[in-house]
């Protein structure tokens, strides 16, 4: 049964990454009664700057790895919830080298579940719609909580594995856990390896944007602030053992998104390169978030995608010092892959 939680002290893993740091900002802004401990290994994708300037009495940073059981023994007790964002998150990287994905996404989740079990701490698991595989472009269906798992990439298969671990720990050990599977996020602090920031920062550095395959793959975009409000809703009011899908009805193909970016940045709509497709590239994701909306009353606020995209472009224009140090290295990696 649902037991509402009023968390006073939460542990956010991956709180220096894109979505995790936006969640930390969201909690600081909207829930003054809640203290946050961020646990982050600061991999290539983590940046301490993402949580810089937040009040020290509200946010504590611990530099460490979620696979480190001794560290978890030290820091988990005293928290009333773990919100688990930390992951290796990029599909292309998982194709080039799957191993870190198995370590962090599978073993790391196992370690956190064991800590949640040992110290009887509520656990919320952040996952992805990619666990469901993909849909055809002309399929009227969308993913629901009942859709069978059918992941395509090393990344999504490790996320699927981690979801299944959570379900087993709920059923077998009675861990008080919930799971959410969200669609593609956009917004500030997203690493320049990902589609939208890559194209914006390419244009800002005089590089032509790169589109995979035929450009018709569809992603279901949601602003990261809406993801944060949904996670808070599930953490505080979700039913234990349940899965909730998070989405904001934002289906768009990649070509349309890229042309929006080009237009908003004053470029010609054809000023981009077609590049080699991603192996196993999922065709379309689409989320039906009826359960979350009807059962818990959540609704997204940022439903104007073009407005959200404009803000995101401005953010990258105004925060060059945040992304410039990693841009050349990221593009060199893509170039080596022919993308
Ligand atoms: P990200 O790559 O931007 O950030 C990941 C963070 O985790 C980084 O700060 C990194 O340093 C940290 N981390 C990695 N390995 C770690 C380890 N072993 N121990 C401790 N910290 C570690 O990822 P993101 O895009 O913000 O995604 C966050 C979560 O949301 C992931 O679980 C991802 O699967 C899920 N998700 C992402 C999206 C999306 O559109 N990006 C959509 C749905 C779900
Ligand atoms: O659906 C949720 C998932 O969304 C999350 O689980 C992942 O962590 C997150 O990275 C994201 O996965 P995608 O693979 O959909 O995101 P990415 O930004 O890598 O790519 C989005 C789409 O754009 C995809 O169809 C591939 C395409 N693409 C990507 C890049 C980097 C391009 O056409 N050109 C590019 O340069």
UniProtKB/TrEMBL annotation:
Key word NAD present: yes
Domain of life from the UniProt record: Bacteria
Domain (NAD(P)-binding) ranges: 11-311
Enzyme class, spelled out: lyase
EC number: 4.2.1.46
Keyword NAD: yes
Catalytic activity: dTDP-alpha-D-glucose = dTDP-4-dehydro-6-deoxy-alpha-D-glucose + H2O
Entry-linked SUPFAM superfamilies: NAD(P)-binding Rossmann-fold domains
Family annotation (Pfam families): GDP_Man_Dehyd (PF16363)
One MF annotation (Gene Ontology) recorded for this entry: dTDP-glucose 4,6-dehydratase activity
One GO term of the biological process aspect: nucleotide-sugar metabolic process
Keyword field: Lyase, NAD
Cofactor(s) recorded in Swiss-Prot or TrEMBL: NAD(+)
PANTHER family linked: DTDP-D-GLUCOSE 4,6-DEHYDRATASE-RELATED
Family recorded in the similarity comment: Belongs to the NAD(P)-dependent epimerase/dehydratase family. dTDP-glucose dehydratase subfamily.
Full protein name: dTDP-glucose 4,6-dehydratase
